[in-house]
Amino acid sequence: MSEIEPIALRELTTLRTGAAPRRMLQADTTAELIASLREVWATGDEWFVLGGGSNLFVGDESFDGTVIRILTTGIEELPSPHEGRIRLRVQAGHSWDDLVAYAVDHGYAGIEAMSGIPGTVGAAPVQNVGAYGQEIQETLVEVELIDEHESDAVVVPAADLGLGFRTSVLKHHYGEAQGRRAVILSVTLDLAVTGDAGRVVRGEQLRRALGLEDYAPVPLAWLRGRILETRAMKGMLLDESDPDTRSAGSFFQNAIIPEHVARTLPPECPRWTVEPDLDSVTVIPLDSYYGLTPRAERPESMVKVSAAWLIENSGIRKGFKLPRSRAGISTKHALALTNRGGATAAEVGELARFVQSRVHAEYGLLLQPEPVLVGVDL
């Protein structure tokens, strides 16, 4: 554990907002990370951890607490109990895209569609990262984490993380209490070993994005290259020379709404059915059980609708800016709120609220922010 001179968070976050915090610690190893957390928890100081800074929207006022930078790295190969697969245990501070590159280079399949996603491995399960129909929950086995105010790290199976669409019990949602306040130390994934044979792409969303017409196997390296090209065209691949990449990625979540609500939207609004959870358990108290089990009602299907479509069709086009503001919608992707150069958090927040108000006025849906908000209110 080492205490360093606080760095302005606008220099460490991809949205480029935020002043220097009151205090900053840096952890280069897991032992240092645990020691830093224990020390901060003992003092009762406000805190948050910082990885790649790609999913943070930080306010203009200095954070009156401690920021812990996670810089741990490393990939460990482990045997998988399943034939034709391998497990990778990866340190939390490792770059997510560097992990994807490693997997592709070694012929390990399962995360290649998530190429180019910024941030660190430890942040990936927190928001259940995904792209083109592939999500980390499909390959995630377990995480090692340490709960706030606990002295020992524990290993938690993926099934206990409450993984959902871009969420988990570890994620701090806007306006909601965090389900489990803990910090991930390492992540274990189970991947298919395909070698040079490549893999058959079956997900329809990914097939459309890649323009695939048949089901012949494609090399992982080719697939990764095409996805990186696609993300770059959308301004979703970090590039210092491109203002469109000075963002927190998709600022708003795609809305997940009941099917009957989705039917009120224009038919041309893109939508995807979210399968209901059919594994729920019905508990019947013994004193109320008379030998008959009530028939389970099939829950109404939920539908995911495109937030980008809602934004553009509420009258906000790519490249839109409010007067005299240095924040703007990306010229390449309507979901990205970008810092066009020197924008304050107040300017970004003003734009976010304007987008929310336009979509709500037009379609009656309130878009929820995707990044974690620190010292900001929408």
Helix proportion: 10-25%
Order of helices and strands: EEHEEEEEHEEEEEEHHEHEEHEEHE
Task: Assign an overall shape.
Answer: globular
Query: Over the alpha carbons, how many angstroms does the gyration radius reach?
Result: 22 Å
Judged by helices, strands and strand pairing, the structural class is alpha+beta
% residues in beta strands: 15-25%
Low-confidence stretches: none
Largest sheet: 6 strands, antiparallel
Mean of pLDDT: 92
Count all strands and give the number: 19
The total of helices stands at 7
Distance between the termini: 35 Å
What would you say this structure looks like, in words?
There is one protein chain. With 378 residues, this protein is of the alpha+beta class. Helices cover 20% and strands 22% of the residues. The chain contains 7 helices and 19 strands. The chain has helices spanning 30-43, 96-105, 204-210, 220-233, 259-262, 307-312, 345-363; strands spanning 2-4, 23-27, 47-50, 56-58, 66-70, 75-79, 85-91, 108-109, 130-131, 134-135, 140-147, 154-157, 182-193, 255-258, 271-274, 302-305, 327-329, 337-339, 372-374. The strands form 6 sheets. Strands 6, 7, 8, 11, 12 and 13 form a 6-stranded antiparallel β-sheet that branches. A hairpin with a 6-residue loop joins strand 11 and strand 12. It is globular and about 55 Å long. It starts with a strand and ends with a strand. The model has no long low-confidence stretch (mean pLDDT 92).
